[in-house]
Q: What sequence folds into this?
């Protein structure tokens, strides 16, 4: 359950560091208690870069969730471009999420896959996702 909204199934729990923290113990990765979230994420990402099977499965799961999330959002928005950002997309993880999303869209939603461009920007831009997205929003009104 989302701690802010009280909603179940919030995308934050499937496509963010919260997902990594929730799945890490199930993937055989011990999570230290007394370190900041950024350090916890870094620890699991280091395991991913070292080919830890459990860490690999975490990011593969996130890719599948990303594919289905994109399809769900397409029920409400006319998607043409999707920009993947955030610290979970850093390093090898970004490509795993992107690959998983493409796999789901091609298999389950081929028309959406054909008309939607999912982009994974350069490493520096990925890590500052929200600020990059906010800075690129058009001005509305006057």
A:
């Amino acid at each position: 359950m989302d701690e802010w909204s009280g909603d179940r199934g919030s995308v934050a729990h499937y496509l963010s560091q919260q997902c990594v923290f929730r799945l890490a113990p199930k993937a055989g990765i011990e999570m230290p208690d007394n370190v900041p979230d950024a350090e916890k994420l870094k620890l699991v990402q280091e395991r991913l870069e070292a080919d830890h099977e459990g860490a690999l499965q975490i990011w593969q799961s996130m890719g599948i969730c990303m594919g289905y999330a994109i399809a769900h959002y397409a029920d409400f928005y006319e998607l043409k471009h999707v920009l993947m950002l955030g610290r979970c997309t850093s390093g090898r993880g970004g490509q795993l999420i992107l690959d998983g999303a493409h796999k789901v869209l091609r298999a389950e939603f081929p028309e959406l896959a054909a008309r939607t461009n999912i982009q994974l920007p350069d490493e520096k831009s990925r890590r500052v996702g929200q600020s990059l997205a906010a800075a690129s929003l058009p001005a509305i009104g006057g």
